[in-house]
Every structure is written in C-alpha cells, then in structure tokens.
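User: Could you check the structure of this?
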Amino acid sequence: MADQSMSEPNRRDFLLLATGAAGAVAGASVVWPLISQMLPDASTIAAGAPVEVDLGPIGEGKAITLKWRGKPIFVRHRTKAEIEASRADDAKITIDPEADAHRVKAFGGKSQDQWIVVYGNCTHLGCVPTGFAGDFGGWYCPCHGSHYDNAGRIRKGPAPKNLFVPEYAFLSATKIKIG
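Assistant: Sure, the predicted structure tokens are below.
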C-alpha cells in the first residue's frame, strides 16, 4: 500500500506544485523591477546613449539616415567606383583638405572604406543635405548650394568644413556602434 501512495499524485503533491509556481511568479515580480530600473530610460537613450547599426541590409550604393543625439547621421555603403573617384580627388580638395582614408575606420586590421558615416548637417548653417546629389555625387545642401563628395568632404559652396564624422567603431564587419 505504501508503494501505491508514493507513485500516485495526491492533494499534497498538487499543493506543493501550486505553492512552488506561485512562489516563482512572486519572485519574478520582485526581481523584474529591480533589473529593469538598471536599464537606461528613454530620455537617456534619446540624449545620446550609444546606438548599434546593422549594416547588412544597406546594399552597395545605398545609404540610410538615422537620428542620434537629435541629429541626422548618414551611413553610406560606397561602391568601388565611388571609393576610387574619392581617392583620386584627394589632391583636389582645397576648402577643408582631408584624405578619404582618414574619414573611414578599420575592422580587424582591414580598412572598411566602403562605409562612410557622417553627421547629416551642413557645416554652413546646419541644414540637412540631400544624398546622392550635387556636382560630386555625394550630398548637396539646397539651402545655400554647398556640394559634398561621397566621403562628405566640402568641394564647392559656402560651407567651411567637411561633414563631421561622429565617434563610431566597428563591432563586426557588418555592425557599428555610434557613440
């Protein structure tokens, strides 16, 4: 008879199981707020917490615009022809001279020169330039006529500086972290 009562579930087993489940739910309801309060709130994220960007969906010759710290960021996947044209024009930059190679980052010891990441504000008066436009195929600010090349360097117009490069780093060959 003792063997039969040990193998069959009874009311005591059910109560132990129910009490254990209720304890687990109660424990989770206490621990969850403690963990979630350690995460940054929306205002902190909006104020400039680092943001990760997956580059995989950005096809060659395409670009995306995202917002970070209230400013637009342009991320552009350049073609080999665009990179070659930009490097060939290094000596022609007169307004704010900077080599194409100084505007890109490396990952794993290899230059990721196909990726250009710049703030999307014209350095003249802060307007947002239009991509894939202007005399040099980069960005064009229609407000006052500044022309940037595909590396974000000012080539023509009233803007005094190149488009600024934000602080960013490659986490992998297809992912960057801005900030």
